[in-house]
Design goal:
single chain; alpha/beta; Signal recognition particle alu RNA binding heterodimer, srp9/1; 2,3-Dihydroxybiphenyl 1,2-Dioxygenase, domain 1; 2 domains; four-stranded mixed beta sheet; globular; VOC_core; Catechol 2,3-dioxygenase; Glyas_Fos-R_dOase_dom; Glyas_Bleomycin-R_OHBP_Dase
Length: 122
């Protein structure tokens, strides 16, 4: 059976977005081209950043309809990362709060993609 292994975000400027994700992920891209940058992620996934103007076929809609979630284990792991990202002045879309699934918050990347941080399911 085939399994998904690539998440692609459409971005205005792959180089700008690469700088954001380089700092956020603490790693270097595995591929860089003028219109596409890729980061290898743990677990066999790759994050791709594709220049929106070069996507074919062009997407039919825009806006935040999905999130990339970072599950952070450990007691106070979510709140610790919240304080770190807040100090880095990342744009916060949702402050640290408790929801049905536990503590969580959301930041935005340079293109407005939603990055949620939460705890793993117990």
């Amino acid at each position: 059976m085939n399994s998904p292994n690539l998440i692609i975000l459409y971005v205005k400027d792959p180089a700008e977005s690469a700088g954001f994700y380089r700092s956020l992920l603490g790693r270097e891209p595995v591929a860089e081209a003028p219109n596409f940058v890729a980061f290898a992620l743990d677990g066999g996934f790759t994050l791709g950043l594709w220049r929106l103007s070069k996507v074919a076929p062009q997407p039919s809609a825009t806006g935040s309809r999905a999130e990339i979630a970072f599950m952070v284990p450990g007691e106070n792991g979510v709140s610790t990362l919240y304080e770190d990202w807040r100090k880095r002045q990342l744009p916060i879309a949702q402050d640290l709060t408790d929801m049905d699934f536990g503590p969580t918050f959301v930041v935005l990347d340079p293109d407005g993609h939603r990055l949620r941080v939460c705890e793993p399911d117990k």
